[in-house]
Design goal:
The protein is mostly helical. It folds into 2 domains: 43 residues, Homeodomain-like (Arc Repressor Mutant, subunit A); 135 residues, Tetracycline Repressor, domain 2 (Orthogonal Bundle), CATH 1.10.357.10. Helices cover 77% and strands 0% of the residues. It is built from 9 helices and no strands. The chain is globular and about 55 Å long. The chain starts with a helix and ends in a 5-residue tail after the last helix.
Length: 190
């Protein structure tokens, strides 16, 4: 298997393992068994086991953004699409997302892990800013909007992973989209 496919297989296995058994199910031995590789191969692709859930979340974020159609619609419809992709991501990967939030809570007490998660969040914010940038005159506003959307969705997705209140959360997202569209609509790129 080529190295890029091996890395992808490790990340997919991490999503599967954490989805089945929570954050505690993730180990080099479990990943190696799931993928059919050696533990050494796992560490050839990742310096530490803590990097893997972060990279898996990055992969899911990229896949979620890849689901979006950027060719049509105004800023409000793009913001709404990002939320829809997030709901779909959690619905398809609820176990992993729940385990990821448990893993992320460890970052509150581990500066190294917190730094990895901060970099992951910055990448997600940049990806959102790239989505919104063509619709805003100022790149700083696109990054700010990306951060607001990311923070809002993190809170909504945590609740969605924990509680069966999808209708309530979708209504909250609709209202957030409406408020953001009003706030940033005046900054539209002509």
């Amino acid at each position: 298997m080529p190295p890029s496919e091996t890395r992808q297989a490790i990340l997919s296995a991490a999503i599967t393992l954490m989805g089945r058994g929570g954050a505690g199910a993730l180990s080099a031995a479990a990943l190696a068994a799931e993928v059919g590789i050696s533990k050494a191969t796992v560490f050839h692709h990742f310096r530490s086991i803590d990097e893997i859930p972060v990279a898996a979340l990055d992969l899911l974020t990229e896949q979620g953004i890849g689901m979006l159609d950027f060719t049509e619609g105004d800023l409000a419809s793009l913001i709404a699409q990002v939320g829809e992709a997030s709901f779909a991501l959690v619905a398809a990967n609820r176990g992993f997302v729940t385990a990821y939030f448990a893993f992320a809570s460890n970052a509150l007490f581990d500066a190294g892990l917190r730094a990895k998660l901060e970099r992951s969040l910055a990448r997600a914010k940049d990806q959102f800013a790239a989505v919104f940038g063509p619709h805003l005159a100022d790149p700083a506003q696109a990054r700010q909007l990306g951060g607001i959307v990311l923070a809002s969705l993190d809170g909504l997705m945590l609740q969605y992973a924990l509680v069966d209140n999808e209708a309530e959360l979708r209504e909250a997202w609709r209202r957030i989209v409406s408020a953001l569209a009003r706030e940033y609509g005046h900054a539209h790129r002509d």
